[in-house]
Design goal:
It is built from 15 helices and twelve strands. By secondary structure, the protein is α+β, with helices and mostly antiparallel strands. The protein has three domains: about 180 residues, GAF domain (Beta-Lactamase); about 130 residues, Beta-Lactamase (2-Layer Sandwich); about 70 residues, Orthogonal Bundle (Arc Repressor Mutant, subunit A). A five-stranded antiparallel beta sheet has the order 2-1-5-4-3, covered by helices on one side. A five-stranded antiparallel beta sheet has the order 7-6-12-11-10, with helices on both faces. A two-stranded antiparallel ribbon has the order 8-9. α12 packs across α14 and α13 packs across α14. The longest helix is centred in the middle third of the chain and has 23 residues.
């Protein structure tokens, strides 16, 4: 048992390394596959190929098989179809193929006959990582595959269920740390450029860093603030205006710094903090960080991260101004506003029901019309426009 727990702890840390290093997922999926006893493992969006704004990070699947899935067979995934039909796509759910389709239905399907069987696969164990707004309502799953003659057991499902909350946190952090150019921010300077709020916590629960967005949001003092510690000028405490909400915040911070490996909070379980002004409450999502991160060293090296969401502070840009000043079309003006609020090309494609390539084409037109040459410069221009027009509208 001690050996198993040590191996499990090492696996969890590999997963959290993926939150700030996308390249670490290859090793993490390999370790997950070995721990479950599978031929392969993938973290993917089963209903959306990369061209549709999704992704697929896999171990043990050939490039040819991934290409076949993306171009031909994704829409024939009988497992995903049945899970959606039966309303089983719920964060935290862990499902075996036996719960989704009968063996006869599976073996008769093109998904099995033409795609999986030639590759030597026939059984799946899948955990629902996200099924809501954390990834633009596109489901994210972790799936393990085996040959048909090696069905997964309830014990296998229990092992994967222990991993899903940790995967949700690591993937959730990776999503939130993407910058305007879709790179993962891995320095404090890069965190300052993100449009949403980011806080880093040291091992004793103190806030060691709050990015520019957080400082702007909290300086108003509307139900949440930072209080500098008198004995350490480099640390602050996150303070809520309500005792019950303060207790919930403190518990979430403690749990993120030292998570229970066998029972941890899913990334989607956010903390809500009400505001005396009556505006929409603040929402905070918490996660642990891998021991190997580049946000700090020494006593104040961050051990956890929180993302502060303030829906009342979304940037509103006058579409008429964009049309008259720069000649943008209605569609281009809409995309410009989404970009100003930090949306990626994939998120814009999903919101506008268009392809990522169409977004890229329209973005090139926006660059040409506005005289900008990069996403970062476009965002700076757009934010300057809101400042000149009495600031963002709440």
């Amino acid at each position: 048992m001690t050996r198993d727990l040590r191996q499990f702890g090492q696996l969890i840390d590999r997963i959290y390394e993926g939150s700030t290093d996308p390249g670490a997922w290859q090793e993490a999926t390999r370790s997950i596959s070995e721990w479950i006893g599978s031929s392969t493992c993938a973290i993917l969006t089963p209903t959306h190929t990369p061209e549709m704004g999704g992704f697929n990070i896999s171990y043990g699947l050939s490039p040819l098989l991934n290409e076949m899935w993306a171009t031909k067979f994704a829409a024939q995934d009988i497992w995903a179809i049945r899970a959606i039909e039966r309303k089983l796509v719920i964060p935290g759910n862990v499902l075996r193929d036996q719960q989704l389709v009968t063996e006869d239905e599976f073996l008769a399907s093109p998904w099995s006959r033409d795609f999986l069987a030639p590759a030597g696969f026939g059984r799946i164990l899948t955990g629902i990582v996200f099924a809501g707004p954390e990834n633009r309502d596109i489901p994210v799953v972790v799936s393990c595959l085996r040959p048909f003659d090696r069905p997964y057991s309830e014990q296998d499902a229990e092992k994967l269920s222990l991993l899903v909350p940790h995967i949700s946190r690591a993937v959730g952090v990776m999503f939130r740390l993407r910058d305007a150019e879709f790179h993962v921010a891995t320095s404090r300077m890069a965190l300052d450029q993100l449009p949403h709020g980011v806080l880093l916590f040291s091992d004793d629960g103190g806030v060691s860093f709050a990015n520019r967005t957080v400082r702007r949001i909290l300086e108003i003092g509307d139900g949440l603030r930072l209080r500098q510690r008198p004995d350490d000028k480099d640390l602050s405490d996150l303070v809520a205006g309500d005792r019950r909400q303060q207790e919930a915040l403190d518990e979430a911070i403690r749990e993120s710094i030292a998570p229970d490996l066998l029972s941890t909070r899913h990334f989607a379980r956010a903390i809500s903090v009400s505001r005396p002004s009556g505006l929409a409450p603040f929402v905070l999502n918490f996660s642990s960080l891998g021991h190997a991160n580049e946000f700090g060293v020494g006593h104040h090296a961050p051990r956890a991260v929180a993302f502060l969401n303030d829906s009342a502070s979304l940037c509103r840009i006058d579409a008429g101004l964009l049309k008259s000043a720069f000649g943008l079309s209605g569609a281009e003006a809409c995309i410009a506003e989404l970009i100003a609020n930090g949306s990626s090309n994939e998120e814009i494609a999903y919101a506008r029901n268009i392809t990522v390539n169409t977004v890229k084409t329209q973005l090139r037109h926006i660059y040409e019309k506005t005289g900008t040459s990069s996403r970062a410069r476009l965002i700076k221009l757009l934010l300057n426009l809101t400042d000149a027009d009495s600031g963002p509208q709440h």
